[in-house]
Amino acid sequence: MSKKLKRKKITLSPKKSASKKSNVYLTKREIRVIKLLCQQYSAGEMAKKLGLSRKTIENRIGDILGKIKSKNRIGIVIYAIKNKIYKLN
């Protein structure tokens, strides 16, 4: 009984070579976590809002960091803004 996860395909141009493109696939849940992170929610607050455990949120953030090859949460926010996942008001 596995559910298919909806994914959003984002094409990025790596810094090393503008001619090569890499694809990053983010699930709807990962995108939701990114948006909440951009709104300065803590892992605990995200967990309550999404009905998940704090550890699940932390794991999800770790997955996102790996997918976008970022070192920290600030990198996720920068990535979200650059890739139009989150708009600043």
Describe the protein.
The protein has 89 residues and is of the alpha+beta class. The protein has four helices and two strands; from the N terminus they run ββαααα. It has a two-stranded antiparallel sheet with strand order 1-2. Helix 3 crosses helix 4. The longest helix is centred in the last third of the chain and has 15 residues, at 54-68. It is globular, with a radius of gyration of 14 Å.
Radius of gyration: 14 Å
- Mean model confidence by pLDDT: 84
The low-pLDDT segments are: 12-21
Number of extended strands: 2
**Strand order in the sheet with the most strands:** 1-2
| Coarse morphology | globular
The secondary-structure element order is: EEHHHH
What is the terminal-to-terminal distance? 41 Å
Structural class call reads alpha+beta
Oligomer: single chain
Counting DSSP H or I runs of 4 or more residues, the number of helices is 4
Main beta sheet: 2 strands, antiparallel
- Helix-residue proportion: 40-55%
Hey, roughly how much beta strand do the residues contain? 5-15%
Give the arrangement of secondary structure elements.
Elements: E1 7-12, E2 22-27, H1 28-38, H2 43-50, H3 54-68, H4 73-82
Antiparallel strand pairs: 1-2
Helix pairs in contact: 1-4, 2-3, 3-4
Compact description:
The chain contains 4 helices and 2 strands; from the N terminus they run ββαααα. By secondary structure, the chain is an alpha+beta fold. Strands 1-2 form a two-stranded antiparallel sheet.
Tags for this entry?
single chain, 89 residues, alpha+beta, two-stranded antiparallel ribbon, globular
